[in-house]
């Protein structure tokens, strides 16, 4: 990795984190009472975009450097497995076992499905 690529990944990661904060805040302000929805939307959309980007890279429409910057940097900063984990643990601590299981498995299944859909679409271009 070149120093320029390293800097680009770092800057893209910061932009991704800022985008996550913006999207989460926007969703929370419009849809009160649901803490986990913002994290779910962020992780599913990030998975879809990463799948698409990976598909485009596999058919050589996106270079490996751009895959690293946009996939590892931007989308790595945007998606948030750690926040999802903390939100699920909080539900478990509140003894809300069914919502914790639903959120955990639902987010996993939806994110993997979205990544698969994005990959399929990227490969078909």
Main beta sheet strand tally, sense and closure: none
Cα end-to-end separation: 28 Å
Number of domains: 1
**How many beta-strand elements?**
0
**Assembly type of the shown chains?**
single chain
Q: Give me the strand/helix succession.
A: HHHHH
Average pLDDT over all residues: 95
Using only CA atoms, what is the Rg? 16 Å
Strand content: under 5%
Describe this structure in words.
The chain has about 120 residues and is mostly helical. The chain has one domain (about 5-125). The protein is built from 5 helices and no strands. α1 (about 5-30) runs parallel beside α3. The model has no long low-confidence stretch (mean pLDDT about 95).
Q: Which key terms come to mind for this protein?
A:
125 residues, 5 helices, fluoride channel activity, metal ion binding, 0% strand, mainly alpha, FluC, globular
Set down the secondary structure blueprint.
Layout: H1 3-30, H2 35-58, H3 64-78, H4 81-93, H5 97-124
Helix pairs in contact: 1-2, 1-3, 2-3, 2-4, 2-5, 4-5
Write a compact overview of the structure shown:
This protein has five helices and no strands.
